[in-house]
């Protein structure tokens, strides 16, 4: 758990806690802690996860399907992969 997560947990436990004091105590920037605590921004890893089309389980399902195709001697094309992914997530993916 990084310092930001510890500071946010501390703020959630004690509702009347001073954000600036908690930020100083953990050595992080007050404005960053305030924005993250109030839900205006998220960490980079969370933002990256939110931008992905497939989550981890869906990616694993797609990979297992690709492996089954290649074991049968049918290498998947880009269009096949796009269609399979669309079936998994329920909407058509873009070109890129």
Top keywords for this entry?
2 domains; 96 residues; 6 helices
Task: Tell me the layout of helices and strands.
Elements: H1 3-13, H2 19-26, H3 30-37, H4 44-51, H5 56-71, H6 78-89
Summary, kept brief:
The chain has six helices and no strands. With 96 residues, the protein is mostly helical. It folds into two domains: 3-50, no CATH class; 52-89, no CATH class.
Describe the 3D structure:
The chain is an all-alpha fold. The chain has 2 domains: about 5-50, no CATH class; about 50-90, no CATH class. The chain contains 6 helices and no strands. Helix 2 crosses helix 3. The longest helix is centred in the middle third of the chain and has 16 residues, at about 55-70.
Structural class: mainly alpha
Helicity level: 55-70%
Strand content: under 5%
Q: What does the overall shape look like?
A: elongated
How large is the radius of gyration?
21 Å
Mean pLDDT: 84
Integer tally of domains: 2
End-to-end Cα distance: 34 Å
Largest sheet: none
Number of strands: 0
Low-confidence stretches: none
Secondary-structure element series:
HHHHHH
Number of helices: 6
């Amino acid at each position: 758990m990084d310092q930001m997560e510890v500071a946010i947990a501390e703020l959630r436990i004690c509702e009347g806690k001073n954000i600036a004091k908690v930020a100083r105590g953990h050595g992080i920037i007050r404005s960053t802690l305030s924005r993250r605590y109030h839900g205006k921004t998220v960490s980079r890893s969370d933002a990256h996860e939110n931008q992905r089309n497939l989550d981890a389980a869906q990616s694993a399902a797609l990979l297992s399907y690709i492996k089954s195709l290649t074991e049968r001697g049918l290498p998947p094309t880009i269009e096949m992969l796009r269609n399979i992914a669309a079936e998994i997530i329920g909407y058509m993916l873009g070109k890129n």
